[in-house]
Amino acid sequence: MLKAQVHGLPMFTNRSDVENITSQKPLLQVVIDTEEEFDWSKGPDRSKVSVKHLQQLHLIQDIFEQYGLKPCYVVDYPVATDRTNNQLLVDAFRHDKCEIGAHLHPWVNPPHNEPLSISNMYPGNLPYELQKQKLQALTYKITETFGCRPVIYKAGRYGFGPNTQQILEELAYQIDLSVCPAFDHSYDGGPDYHNFGVNPFLFGKNLLEIPLTAAYVGIAGSYSHHLFSFAKQYEKFRLPGVFARSGVVDRLVLSPEGFTTAEHVKITQFLLKRNVRIFTWSFHSSSIVVGNTSYVQSQKQLTEFLDRFKRFFDFFFDTLGGAATSPIQFKSLMEKQK
Q1: Which CATH number fits domain 17-212+277-332: 1.25.40.10, 3.40.50.11190, 2.60.120.10, 3.20.20.370?
Q2: Backbone angles phi, psi at 85, to 5 degrees
Q3: Is 184 helix (H, G, I), strand (E, B) or coil?
Q4: 247-301, pLDDT tens digit by residue?
Q5: pTM above 0.90?
Q6: What biological process terms from GO does the record include (predicted)?
Q7: Domain residue extents for the chain
Q8: Do residues 26 and 277 touch, judged by C-beta distance below 8 A?
């Protein structure tokens, strides 16, 4: 039996912040966790590998093309192997309308040598050799299906671990998207990112980290995490909402899943004032079909979900005068500015 490594702060060695990363224009990239349909409230199940929702990929891809966005689909093993349902995604990539990265869900990715557990759903908790074997298998399948070796990685459940950096370097990955600022997943064995900011940084042997756009917003400053954690203990009394409405602290993510357009604007304006210039719009592919996630349980919710894309993109590109980017495009921009 393998024993998972339960850890807190992920290991990022030789870390350095990226300076002078962009022009004055804010940049927006889109990252989609492109994965199988499964019940998030339950433990890992290796039999849940359906990706039929990808037949509806046009619902979001059409929006991205309308706004000149080149989304990055980080795909896991069930997506990479299901030739019946992933054809729209393959076609989009072959026509240069998206980027493709790797997204490791260990429980549905061979080799299946680890016991099923919540902790082992974080790939960074797996021993070095097993984690590497799984990412090698995924890398091979993505290369076979899409005709291009991926250089972008996002750990399933944001599970970057002590061995992940070395494995990414050994497998020639260049960009990581695993950091989830303001969130602490250590309660069930995951990494603790609550001290991370949203700005990109270089680490290891020239790996680029582009964190998720998530942050504590409000006047609490360095006390944000402690105050937010305190408020969550009294959620039944709606204390988090009281803190948010009063401007003390709110934890927001630039995502159409569970966050409103007003909150998207709020976090963007808050971070812009703090000189953040790259933003990531992120969500799960399975949300594009009713019933797959808690965020989209009716046709009305699906319509509202997709409308949030357009409302925020209108704000970002028209009101703010922002520009579209992608992980690979952003890395190229950085290299030109050196």
Answers
A1: 3.20.20.370
A2: -105, -10
A3: strand
A4: 999 999 999 999 999 999 999 999 999 999 999 999 999 999 999 999 999 999 9
A5: yes
A6: carbohydrate metabolic process
A7: 17-212+277-332
A8: yes
